[in-house]
Design brief:
Blueprint: E1 2-6, E2 9-11, E3 17-24, E4 29-38, E5 45-51, E6 56-58, E7 66-71, E8 76-81, E9 90-102, E10 105-113, E11 117-121
Parallel strand pairs: 2-11
Antiparallel strand pairs: 1-3, 3-8, 4-5, 4-9, 5-6, 7-8, 9-10, 9-11
Length: about 120
């Protein structure tokens, strides 16, 4: 199983970006999907999470500006970043917990990380 993150880049303050994270491989289900970020010199922090049913949580610093979503048919997660601030500059990582197998014989959960995508907010 692999995670492929994309969508980062350089953007001016106040602008928007959309990050994507696609999971591929032998996957039965993905209960939880999360976005983390790590700014230079800081610890990695949880930005947002979403369950398979669509329940979401957000860090206080991004509430009202970021929106997490997922497409279960595509095993893909998104993070819409609006009203970006210089403090949002970081490498953004996607993380999922998944099961393999089938409905009567599943294995897991397993935990996997994407490679990270850099978001730079600067004028």
């Amino acid at each position: 199983v692999q995670l492929q993150a994309s969508g980062g880049g350089l953007v001016q303050p106040g602008r928007s970006l959309r990050l994507s994270c696609a999971a591929s491989g032998s996957i039965y289900s993905i209960p939880n999907m999360r976005w983390y970020r790590q700014a230079p010199g800081k610890q990695r922090e949880l930005v947002a999470s979403i369950t398979r049913s669509g329940a979401t949580t957000y860090a206080d610093s991004v509430k009202g500006r970021f929106t997490i979503s997922r497409d279960n048919a595509k095993n893909t997660m998104y993070l819409q970043l609006n009203s970006l601030e210089p403090e949002d500059t970081a490498v953004y990582y996607c993380n999922v917990q998944y099961y393999t197998g089938n409905w009567y014989a599943r294995s897991g959960p397993y935990d996997i990380w994407g490679q990270g995508t850099l978001v730079t907010v600067s004028s």
